[in-house]
Amino acid sequence: MSDNVIDARGLLKLYGGARVVDAIDLSIRRGEIFGLLGPNGAGKTTTILMMLGLTEISGGSVNVLGFNPVRQPLEVKRRVGYLPDAVGFYDNLSARENLIYTARLLDIPRRETEARIMEALRSVDLADVADKRVATYSRGMRQRLGIAEIVMKKAEVAILDEPTSGLDPHATFELLEMIRRLKRGGVAVLLSSHLLDRVQSVCDRVALFNQGKIALMGTVVELANKVLGAGHPLLIEATGQDVAGTLGSIAGVRQVVPAGEGAWRVTADHDVRAEVAQRIVSAGGALTKLSDLQPSLEEVYTRYFQEARHAA
Amino acid sequence: MPRSLGGREGSPFTGIGPVYMKELADHLSSVRMLVLTLFIIVFGAFPVASSLQQLRTTIGSDAYLFLRIFTIEPEQVPIPFVQALNFVIPLMAIGLGFDLVNSEFNRRTLSRVLSQPLYRDALLLGKFLAGLTTLAVALAALWLIVFGAGLLLLGLPPRGVEVARALGFLVVAVAYGGVWLAVAMFFSVVFRSTATSALSALGLWLFFFILWPLIAQAITRAFVPPEITSLDQYIGLQELALALQRLSPGTLFSEAVLALLNPETRTLGPMLPSQMRGAIMGAPLPLGQSLLLIWPQVTGLIAGMIVVFSASYVIFQREEVRA
């Protein structure tokens, strides 16, 4: 068996003639966190539903853990955990009762059920409210309960649809931490989102969706290189004589752009931080800030869609 | 044709047990169930109480005294018990079924549940069977109450054949409820809004109760020739009228119940003089003969239930799960 847990080839979905998902190729590797990014309506959820066998596939093929979701949906659904967008639970039941129902559907042996549920609830910090009705839960708690369901299921792959949408920053932080924990447990995670900065921090690789197609795919740095141009962006704040000129004379520096009073943005072919510090100090200047600018997915995304619009 | 229907692997019944148990628990513990049960008991209690009062005066003169509790038209409340049921059972079935599927959409639980290893078949069938069981439990309880009240107030045990006929009546009542449960579930699959599906199901029920008899009459009248010249022509018209009436599940129910609870019933259609030859007026039919008489009605009810269920099944298979 290959190292890919999900393999999609030419996956196609038509809705009344419109190509909602337009022949995409996608592979998710074992143990990675993969982000599906893109504006609403770009085909992310439809792609996810096709992988789970919850909606018809119009063309192409998809293979999940060696099973075909069209012909073997039960096998796929036994091994894949799914957290839908704005997940719902039975409000009149407690968290524990909700999970018991899922455990019965999964055919988990009865004597294991209780232990597995409590372990799962503990892993998402819901153990002390396990017997409260879900109606009293906040949105963040519901999402965590959804993660608990995946943990209880001992899924090999977790598919999370917009897991952080509508959560406050703290709840988002907690949820992302739980997603990382899933990964540490050896679970491959596929998550979709339109909230980029949050996704950036957890994803190993991302795919950028646009109108049913995958526009870009790779690590965040790879995408940044492709869209924003290669190089290491730096932010420098310094005082002294002709800082810009000093910076520009460093080998490997391609661009120096003023970024406000006494600040410059430098793009270089490789990491030139050490040299920058040395040259400024030896030129008699004072270096007050030297930071490596992580390429931001937000920037990639905005730039990419600007260009896509211009091209159109 | 959805491809998943062809060549998919695994039993369509995987997971039906947990769905059934959960739905049953939901029904039995719900406030709605309590209200519906109260409703059906109140509706049933009045006719039964007044028929019992009346029957106490005629003990001994009637071989099928117990069955009369169900069918007699009391003086104070001019509705026999079975007629009250004819009216109330659909209401109860609709009350149980109108939000079976669309509530899962609205609570956003559907996609989560369907991402567990089960087919949609199991979800739909499990829900339907749980609803039917709930209905059967409520009707059986009512049936037992009536029987118990009869025993207490008439002070007379029912004969075996009476119990058998009354049990047959219970089965027919559950089948009748099943038709309306299937109808309610059909609308709950078609409409996302629970209010719309409840209204549609109630609308259909009112249509069959109030409008359909009138429409059937009007249609028949349209076929009446200026002059009826032969008996065959007359019988033909009668049969057309009956056939139209029988499209309503309520008619099938009342016919089946009539033949079961009034053993004297010899036919459910027009009666010809040739059929009367050799018959002793008012002599009861054996149970087997009565069952033969209502066989078409009962199969009709069950067939209707299956047809409506299949329709909801087909629609549900094609429905997109995303809210």
Give a brief outline of the structure:
By secondary structure, chain A is of the alpha/beta class.
Describe the protein:
The complex is a heterodimer of chains A (312) and B (323). Helices cover 38% and strands 29% of the residues of chain A. By secondary structure, chain A is of the alpha/beta class. Chain A folds into 2 domains: 4-218, P-loop containing nucleotide triphosphate hydrolases (Rossmann fold); 230-297, Alpha-Beta Plaits (2-Layer Sandwich), CATH 3.30.70.100. In chain A, the strands form 3 sheets. A 6-stranded mixed β-sheet of chain A has the order 5-6-7-3-8-9, sandwiched between helices. A 4-stranded antiparallel β-sheet of chain A has the order 11-12-10-13. The mean pLDDT of chain A is 89. Chain B is mainly alpha-helical and 323 residues long. Chain B has one domain (12-270, 282-318). Chain B is built from 13 helices and no strands. The model of chain B is unreliable at 1-5 (pLDDT under 50). The chains are: A alpha/beta (312), B mainly alpha (323). The A-B interface holds A 45-46, 49, 52-57, 70-75, 77-78, 80-92, 101-102, 104-107, 146, 149 and B 2-4, 7-10, 14-15, 17-19, 21-22, 26, 107-109, 111-119, 320-323.
